[in-house]
Amino acid sequence: MKRSPGRTTLGLIFAGVLALVSAAAVADDPYPGKPIRIIVQFGAGTSTDIVARIVAQKLTQSLGQSVVIENKVGAGGILGTELAARAKPDGYTIVMAVSSVFGIDPTLYARLPFDVLKDFTPITMLVTVPQTLVVPENGPRTVRELVELARARPGQLGYASLGVGSTSQLTTVMFASTVGIDLIHVPFKGSAEAATQVIGGAVPMMFDALPAVLTPVRAGKLRALALSSAKRSPLLPDVPTFAEAGYPGIEALGWIGMAVPAGTPTPIIDRLNRDIAAILNDPEVKPKLEAMGFTTLGESPQASRKFIEDEIVKWGKAVRASGAKVE
User: Fold this and answer.
1) pLDDT digits (tens, 9 = 90+) for 310-321
2) Tens digit of pLDDT for each residue in 53-101?
């Protein structure tokens, strides 16, 4: 049956009108058009959760949409990260890109249910935080004294950590291999438990993130010997870096960033990057984070990817040196 030219013309006109209406609807409903969720792989009150909530509060204001925190705890952060990897890449799911999961786990685990470089696109790096070498208040007064003590008692001194493959353990491995000492690993379930054992003298040393040990150090219960950062912290101005203490090459930072599922449109990523970078420089936010021991960043998505790639290589060396492997 031959189609009427008039009907064909009307059909084309109708299709064109629909396309224009659709485009107008999209223009009238730009991103974000609904609440955004930030998946935090750790519990409320952790450093990652605190940073996420500070950013989320300001992001709600800048985007004009609710930005809500979802704490998805389990398997050392793997559960929440896997959930984010499977989310629709539409900009409405953000995940915290933390050093333990995005930097250490790719080497530590024989198999992961995601690939941090293939399944995610970084938005930006938010903050870094140095590891702090602490001993009991009556312990060695300098890094050199601790090293000499460990060399005099090879394989006898223990060190506390937050578990196999944790940043605290791998920083200690990096330290021990650099200075040439042999230590015994004593893992604990968390910072508070580990610090208590070091304070009491049951374990002679540990590395932990600066915010976790700041209070007991200031209270005189722990002595901080050095920071694993390139510069001193204004929160502990009398504590040297490892380079200043005579042991260069020991730089190990914990870090927290934000990422979205791979395939998220570039304009959305760029919008989030601009808004979050502005938040990190906000006169209310920046001092608040710095008072906790964090250094704010705000890198581009491209620079953030390069940062993560470099950290995977660095932590991979520490994982292999430790002999740790999770099947």
Assistant:
1) 999 999 999 998
2) 999 999 999 999 999 999 999 998 999 999 999 999 999 999 999 999 9
Q: Which two tokens stand for residue 172?
A: 């200690």
Q: How many structural domains are present in the chain?
A: 2
Q: Do 126 and 280 meet the contact criterion of CB atoms below 8 Å apart?
A: yes
192 and 276 assigned to the same domain? no
Q: What are the tokens at 195?
A: 């610090």
Length of the chain: 327
* Cα–Cα dist 270/272, whole Å: 5
User: How far apart, in whole angstroms, are the C-alpha atoms of residue 298 and residue 304?
Assistant: 9
pTM of the model: 0.85
**32 cis-preceded (ω within 30 degrees of 0):** yes
Q: Count of CB atoms within 10 A of residue 17's CB?
A: 10
169: its two tokens = 């353990």
Q: What is the CATH number of the domain that holds 110?
A: 3.40.190.150
HSE, CB side, 13 Å, CA atoms: give it for residue 304. 31
Whether 83 contacts 39, CB under 8 Å: yes
Residues 6+ apart with CB under 8 A from 10: none
Query: E strands of 174-237, at which residues?
Result: 184-187, 206-209, 222-227
